[in-house]
Design a protein that fits this description.
alpha+beta; seven-stranded mixed β-sheet; 9 helices; 41 strands; 36% strand
């Protein structure tokens, strides 16, 4: 339809797309002459009503309830223009198919269902969805989403709507199949390993009957009992087979004088871990202090020393090998980026920007930080349960929070400490530290005593002394420096301790802006060699606040865009990027080195 456009939905389910059409085609005929949007006006009616927004401000739901007929005619485009504000996050329609993946047998049927959401709000889906199968010879689908399995194989079932389309995976499977785990294993001489078999029907349901029959290809090397327990008898290789009816699956077992544990490990850049090797003699007796040679096939990704200690250097995958004369065993290491991502000033039940910033986190791995004021208006238990938990709360398991002043509007910040539990630090304190990759990270409670001789700063100085890492980062709610209106000089003692301890980066919130400073001293003097770089990331979703000017050493600032700060922490430096919500045009990125 002319003039229709896709815009952000809201938490209360208002159909903004319909309001857009209503304001453009229906309201002008009702507006009295001389009012914006009247038939005598030469300007676009939506533009006229948008202009009123700047004169009259945002219209509240209470005002709508009190409005008369004429006021409602004007109010609808006013509310619309608020939602169309370019500074607000713009949503995206999402089409989903349930289930997203499934399996059936030949001749079996199952139904797929399509759904559409806008900014998390469900939309009615019309019945004229177009369903198609990428391989009709494997499975066909009718106009209602009912799928029928034809031949063994795989296909993709597509649902197409006027909002977009998506696909689900479908496999047509035999009536019975068996899966063994592990597929490959190593066992020391005279020791055992258990192979497990799972029997499934075509739909993937586990079958308890019939019993699995086990067999070995080489009983001199390894035997297997009726429960899948394999015992190594002599050095060599055997194939262990699990059978049910006319189907079977196999596992390869190597009986060896050396095994490495763990078999695999996932690390972030800068992490270390230790691998161990066990060696036996020809009788199966464990050797004490055997000579083992350790090696990495890619020392760019990870190195390993003579004691089996691995250091992760760069994202990638690498094989680690332990060797003795005439034999060797291997393990694997996967190295990923050490990512710290988050913001402050986050959730409220009266707006939806925290929904948008939470969706950014859905696609960014790593540890999630909060820079305080997590649940408005007062950090009460119900605010955490109803406002924070439905959005950012889905990342709670990987979250390392900081507390803010609004959290303390509930006595002793009880809502904050109860919600986060042990992750928030000791109740009444709320300060703690942790290591992440090559970095030492400190979380400060800026809402309690931060004087030079306070218990918190005594702990801070001791913690810095005990962790002399090359790279150190701290985050807390109150910023010492800001181009907004909420710089807090009382944080200087904290900065003094961090500066003396060699900290590299500080993250704060409180001012509802984004700002990046050049490295500087606690007195605000530029110091490229030893200074601390401050980021203000009060952009989690609550609101925006004005800029009062440009503070010394401020390099970048913005007060119109919600988003999160993503830091990639390397062994001797860091990369940063401000990730805006969908529709946001402001961003900031760069790199820094540790000192």
């Amino acid at each position: 339809m002319p003039g229709a456009q896709r815009v952000q939905g809201n938490r209360h389910g208002v159909n903004i797309w319909r309001l857009r059409r209503l304001s453009q085609y229906w309201l002008p005929s009702l507006a009295p002459s001389g009012l914006p949007g009247s038939r005598g006006s030469s300007e676009h009616p939506l533009e006229q009503f948008t202009a009123l927004t700047f004169i009259n401000g945002q219209l509240t739901r209470g005002a709508l309830r009190r409005a008369g007929y004429l006021t409602i005619v004007v109010a609808i485009p006013l509310a619309l223009s608020t939602c169309l504000d370019s500074s607000a996050p713009v949503g995206a329609f999402r089409v989903a198919v349930s289930p997203s993946a499934a399996s059936i047998g030949r001749g079996d049927t199952m139904r797929f269902v399509a759904s559409v959401t806008d900014a998390g709000n469900p939309l009615p889906v019309e019945t004229n969805i177009v369903w198609t199968s990428s391989s009709p010879l494997v499975a066909r689908v009718d106009a209602s989403g009912l799928v029928t399995g034809i031949e063994l194989g795989a296909t993709r079932i597509r649902a197409s709507t006027r909002w977009g389309s998506t696909e689900a995976d479908l496999a047509v499977m035999p009536p019975t199949r068996i899966i063994v785990s592990p597929l490959v294993s190593e066992v020391l001489l005279r020791t055992t390993v258990r192979i497990r078999a799972t029997v499934l029907n075509a739909r993937g349901d586990t079958l308890r009957e019939p019993a699995v029959v086990w067999a070995t290809s080489n009983p001199e090397v390894a035997t297997v009992d009726s429960l899948g327990l394999v015992r190594g008898r002599t050095f060599g290789v055997a194939v262990i087979r699990a059978s049910v009816r006319d189907t079977s699956s196999e596992s390869l077992v190597a009986v060896t004088p050396i095994v490495v544990t763990p078999k695999s490990k996932t690390l972030v850049e800068g992490d270390t871990t230790r691998f161990h090797a066990t060696v036996v003699d020809d009788n199966g007796d464990t050797l004490v202090a055997p000579h083992i040679s350790w090696s990495s096939v890619d020392t760019v990704v990870a190195t390993i020393d003579s004691n089996g200690v691995v250091r992760a250097l760069k994202p990638g995958e690498v094989s680690i090998r332990a060797s003795i004369p005439n034999a060797s065993a291997a393990g694997s290491v996967t190295v990923s980026d050490a990512i710290l991502v988050g913001a402050g000033d986050i959730a409220t039940c009266t707006a939806y920007a925290d929904d948008s910033t939470a969706r950014l986190l859905d696609d960014i791995p790593g540890i999630v930080f909060t820079a305080g004021d997590n649940a408005y208006p007062s950090g009460a238990p119900e605010s955490y349960a109803n406002c924070f938990n439905p959005t950012w709360g889905r990342h709670k398991a990987r979250m390392r929070p900081a507390v803010g002043n609004h959290d303390y509007e509930t006595a002793d910040a009880a809502g904050y400490f109860d919600y986060f539990g042990a992750a928030a630090g000791e109740p009444g304190k709320g300060f703690y530290s942790y290591d992440y990759g090559a970095w030492h990270i400190l979380v400060i409670n800026s809402s309690i005593d931060v004087d030079t001789n306070s218990p918190q700063l005594q702990w801070l100085r001791a913690d810095l002394a005990a962790h002399p890492a090359l790279c150190t980062l701290a985050y807390f709610h109150y910023p010492l420096f800001s181009s907004g209106t909420y710089a807090v000089p009382g944080m200087r003692a904290t900065w003094n301790a961090l500066y003396a301890g060699g900290a590299d980066v500080v993250i704060s919130g409180h001012d509802h802006i984004y700002e990046r400073f050049a490295p500087q001293t606690p007195e605000g003097v530029a110091d490229a060699a030893h200074g601390i770089r401050e980021f203000i990331v009060g952009t989690g979703g609550r609101s925006h606040l004005p800029l009062a000017g440009v503070a010394p050493n401020s390099e970048v600032r913005d007060n119109k865009t919600f988003g999160v700060l993503k830091l990639t922490l390397h062994a001797s430096g860091y990369d940063w990027v401000f990730v805006p919500v969908t529709g946001g045009t402001f961003t900031d990125s760069g790199s820094g080195t540790c000192h």
